[in-house]
Specification:
Largest interface: A-B, 32 and 31 residues
Number of strands of chain A: 16
Strand order of the largest sheet of chain A: 3-2-9-5-6-7-8-4
Oligomer: homodimer
CATH architecture of the largest domain in chain A: 3-Layer(aba) Sandwich
CATH superfamily of the largest domain in chain A: Zn peptidases
CATH topology of the largest domain in chain A: Aminopeptidase
Distance between the termini of chain A: 28 Å
CATH class of the largest domain in chain A: Alpha Beta
Number of helices of chain A: 14
Radius of gyration of chain A: 24 Å
Strand content of chain A: 15-25%
Shape of chain A: elongated
Helix content of chain A: 25-40%
Number of domains of chain A: 2
Amino acid sequence: MFKLSLNNMIKSAVFSIACLSHFSFADVLNETEVKHLTDLQKTSLNSDLSYQLIESLTTEVGHRLVGSEGDKKSITWAVDKMRSLGFDKVWTEKVTGTYWHRGDVEAKVLSPYPHKVVAIALGGSIGTGEDGLTANLAHFETLKDLEAAPDNSLNGKIVFISYRMERHIDGNGYDAAVGARVSGASIAAQKGASAIIIRSVGTDNNRLAHTGVMRYKDDVKKIPAATISNPDADMLVNQLKRSNSVEFYLKLTSHTDPKVSVKTANVIGEITGSEFPDEIVSIGAHLDSWDVGTGAVDDGIGVGMMMAAAHHISRLPERPKRTIRVILFAAEEVGLLGAKQYMEVHKDEMNKHIIGAEWDFGVGPIYEMRTGVGVKSLSALNEFAEYIKPMGVAVSKTNTAKAQSDMRLLSEAGMPSINFAPDGTLYFDYHHTENDTLDKVDAKALKHNTAIYTMFAYFAAQSGVDFRK
Amino acid sequence: MFKLSLNNMIKSAVFSIACLSHFSFADVLNETEVKHLTDLQKTSLNSDLSYQLIESLTTEVGHRLVGSEGDKKSITWAVDKMRSLGFDKVWTEKVTGTYWHRGDVEAKVLSPYPHKVVAIALGGSIGTGEDGLTANLAHFETLKDLEAAPDNSLNGKIVFISYRMERHIDGNGYDAAVGARVSGASIAAQKGASAIIIRSVGTDNNRLAHTGVMRYKDDVKKIPAATISNPDADMLVNQLKRSNSVEFYLKLTSHTDPKVSVKTANVIGEITGSEFPDEIVSIGAHLDSWDVGTGAVDDGIGVGMMMAAAHHISRLPERPKRTIRVILFAAEEVGLLGAKQYMEVHKDEMNKHIIGAEWDFGVGPIYEMRTGVGVKSLSALNEFAEYIKPMGVAVSKTNTAKAQSDMRLLSEAGMPSINFAPDGTLYFDYHHTENDTLDKVDAKALKHNTAIYTMFAYFAAQSGVDFRK
């Protein structure tokens, strides 16, 4: 009923919220608070602060691979920005990792039809040595096919997995594809292979390969692992249609130096709560990136959105009741090192993390709010849902959501969580490639999404709802 | 009138043509000939021969830079394919050129914010020497702005032109952008600059730079010339917003060896005319490509279409009256060397070139036939236009068209010409980049376009219309 009459009244999302405050359903926020929510929505929909932050980060810092100069600079950048944006507290928490060196890559088909191949080392891969290695390809369409190969059947071969990731709005093609990237090397090695190349885990047709983390099993020989671009994978498949014997050359000089310990840091900033300063509404993103592109999408967008959201709230006449904590995690890409460290440092105050949400996916607009909160607090969240419904955001029917990426660890430790699902149709065109640059940021969607996080953080911090119950 | 009743009758393009033969407007072709035209349309719309040829060329040969192994292989490839496809005569005509070596490229911003930059040498550029060169950027938004700079005002600077090409269906943004690529180096050198980088002449946002030919003025010092990718150009503009002093490093090891003469060849194949074998309907494309990508779009599509069109016609019960000559030009990319040589060899038989059309643009479907023929033959061409109108092809109102690329030289020497204009919206996303690969070929549009060239060649060869009058 209400929804129908509301829909009829909508002239704009902002107008709709203004109207909501005159209805009596608003049990959680009072009239002043609804006005603040409306103001925050207006402000963030009209502000390009999050875009400016992403531009600043990607122009002045660039990529932020753990242990790189950019990684170090980004910590200073984030601390300075948070201070200038009016955060009440800003600090860093040390995170330690290892520095993996990408080195150089060279890949080509030697026969039957010589071609250069666009390839990239997977994060964590060992190298081939300076001379590279030459071997015939053993082609598998899927990781499962590779798993089914007999032991020793691939001795001296380079495994090639040609599985192509599917494009979906929620990015769910990633799960079916990423196994080959993460686990393929050790499985291939168990069968005797000397290296592995896989079709990039990406939905684009660009001559750019997608990097990403891979893992070696402890008890299996390590072999070099790389991805190749989608057009190059097509070309290999076309060669394999013509010949059973495709000779391939791969050189990677990537390596990890076990003696070198890299220091990086989580950067944390707070808008301190006026009534319950020890109750934390956490919003997060990761500050590190791969060393290809400038990490504009992954996860510059998250960094810009979270900082802008907190800033907008800091400009209200008074601080919300609870503390809003922006956590910019270190070393997400190489294995959630910052998140693990955060859990270690803050394990005793997990019960003070009232609710949290991260941003580490998508370039398009948020279309669904997925909840993972105490059942009793769902009705209060439904009030919040009414505020963002006119912006085109639905609510999930299930209540099992975890926060994205780093904050999944906090969710798993019991933190009530929201996953704001954006249109991720294009995300895996750019993900972990040289194409992850500022121009891929959708400025309009960014405003929409920043508004939603701003409103969410304010609602959660001001309402006093206990999302744990 | 006719058009209205025809439109009502259309179920499919093929059906429409079948219908046409029952109308009496068909003054040029008789009933049997219209049936052959219909059959050719059906055959080519249902055949993937042109796609198979492009797959074969790009897989088995790869890129075809003048003087490269691929260039040599492509000549053998084309001769063999023409023979196996049933051409009556196949031969090559020698073309001589110089071999420009791309060498390596390295580009980066040194300060204020260090970044690597994706760059590519322009075809014909000299190198910087192995040590590269370091200089501050002098930024111009357009070539015109550079032209207005005072002499000696750019001493020791690297010129950066940031003009961005516009996207249009007919690719007309190219003309406004390409001047900086072709002429920018010598104009910059005249003002004292030590090198020039320009934003890629391309409509994409990929981290891939677009190469292409450039020219030095004879009396001006030669300086190195490169393009950078669109996202990198954006990044430079953002640095220049923050600082007047952007220090840039450029290394190119490209060079031309004036002592080495490269031999390549035009490849020519004919379906010999049954009545007027010395009257030539010429359809063409260029066989060479740049050394980035595999030249699938530029101009593998043209190669595949022309060879397939002639093959389809060769399968008719009898040869058309006139000869259909497929000309695969050499060395188009480096300055129409093959076309110039063709003009030299065939200058005395230009009046026997009854009509011609090339394909060297676009990946989308043909939407317009542009004529440049004798006025008296326009009515006959209008009959042909009725056959392709149901396929969505309009006719230009003007009669001043030249053939594309190489064949423009033949047009300028008096050959009646057709320019079939395709949807070129996406063409300059791929043009002269690593992204020019098989996956960019639109298989559906390719069938549509192959059908139109097949029908055109048959119509022109069989009708006996003198397009010169």
